[in-house]
Known about the structure:
The protein is of the alpha+beta class. The protein has helices at 2-19, 105-111; strands spanning 21-22, 29-40, 62-64, 73-78, 84-91, 99-103, 119-126. It contains two helices and seven strands. The longest helix is centred in the N-terminal third of the chain and has 18 residues, at 2-19. Residues 35-123 form the RlpA-like protein double-psi beta-barrel domain.
Amino acid sequence: xxxxxxxxxxxxxxxxxxxxxxxxxxxxxxxxxxxxxxxxxxxxxxxxxxxxxxxxxxxxxxxxxxxxxxxxxxxxxxxxxxxxxxxxxxxxxxxxxxxxxxxxxxxxxxxxxxxxxxxxxxxxxxxx
Length: 128
């Protein structure tokens, strides 16, 4: 009986994952989070090492996430204006509760419609 329940749960989770996939932009993408907060790094972090060992540069298209593996490509889309950018996870964070991503300044400014705000609401898709 336990084995049958486990198979049912596995099947239901598989259907949920498949139903969240999208083919926008020519590649396969899976919706990871919707309508979450993203912020950007302060300039004082330039040149410091990230958790992956890479040097941080605010001019790159990278991001920090608490759990996603380093090297994961994400499409981050501003909920308000639909603008999106592809970033690579190379650090851990953000360290502020309620935030899902820390983007480099370049990535953030590419998709924001108000350069005076420190955070925006985004949708996140995993590309790989």
